[in-house]
Amino acid sequence: MEFKVCLDQFEGPLDLMLHLVRSSKLDLFELNLDILAAQYCDYIHQALSLALDVSSEYLVEFATLLEYKSKKLLPRPEVIEPDEEGYVEDPAQKLARRLREYEKCKAQSEAIAKLARDRAMKLGREPSSRIEEWQNTPSYDEKLSISPDALSKAFVRVLRRYQLIQPYQTKVEVKELSIETRMAQILNMECFSETPVRFERLLEDIHTLHEAVVTFLAVLELVHEGAAGVYLDQENGKDDIWIHQLPVNH
Amino acid sequence: MDSSASSESLKSLLEGLIFTSGEEGLTLLQLQSVLDWCERSTLVSTLEEMKHDCLSEDRGIELVRYGGCWKYVAKEPIYPFAQKLYSKIRSSALSAPAMEVLSLVAYRQPITRVQIDEIRGVSSDMMLKKLQARGLVETCGHLDAIGRPLLYQVTPAFYDTFGIESLGDLPEVELGEMQSSLFDEVEES
Description:
Distance between the termini of chain B: 72 Å
Structural class of chain B: alpha+beta
CATH architecture of the largest domain in chain B: Orthogonal Bundle
Number of helices of chain A: 8
Largest sheet of chain B: 3 strands, antiparallel
Helix content of chain B: 40-55%
Oligomer: heterodimer
Mean pLDDT of chain A: 75
Mean pLDDT of chain B: 81
Order of helices and strands of chain B: HEHHEEHHEHHEEHH
Number of strands of chain A: 3
């Protein structure tokens, strides 16, 4: 038995069962629940194995039918009440009744759908606003009649909206400038000679606080190594740091 | 007002009045409140006559009564031409699940949501809300049971949308014959 598994086309488990009943020509009045249960379970198994999203309503019926099938496997002592005689208990009849009820519902819904279609063919005198709306034919091949100015304004609006929609993207890059590199750079600077220069001169080629700090540390290191001399000029209220090169072999 | 109006002028009065009401239509009560010298039975018979006239005569409109409202509508052969004239002529049709829920309400009203769910085997909550939003279904009190669930029924707009006068006009669905014999059988056994 081959199924094309597609649950989307059914309105629910009852619709699916009804489809199975019809396609295997089962009698809704003498419902063979064994066949139906087997087919339904196969169908759901396939749907699940295809990793389809099987909604809970299908699974409820699935569980009920599985229970029915597993009960059939067990030997059952014949203790049927004399007057009830499986009338209440018989799941086949219960399901058949539900299916017939649902079938009726489907037939009725098709019947009223036809009524609605017929009725829709008879137009009333709609409110004039509605008529206007109807008459408003969108014509796409008409030439645009707007000024270039309006167009450019619209374009600016689009761009602005685009900017608003686009999250502002920025990258944080830390340029790892090491103290050693900076020391070498300072030693190579033209301004760094035996003539003292202000500390600020050494900061001319840098852009970030990080680099300024590194430069400062590099200067301290140079002083420590004896490659540079430094003095503070605090005359006349100034706070200038002067730096000059010391002869290396000193 | 000329209370000795002949049958002929009564027709024209009714025609004119109903024409003005447009899509909404007029109820018998509204018509009678203006034409107060007429018996209600006279109005009804005249309206029925007019309806018959429209159908038999070579005319493009017909007089209909949907859910108690009399109004003029264009006859069915007009539709394809109107479709060419107006680009967006129809509002969206109902989906199959919506139609199922609506048919359950129409054929079995008043009905609770749980009863609908039981018959359909799936939840109908959203569908009922959509139908309510479209004005086709309304609540009509509570069922006197545990939880006092809401009862649903169809609205006057339903009669118009489906072109019927009353719920009695809903088509019979023939599945019945075998069913009744089956139930007899079951009860006997």
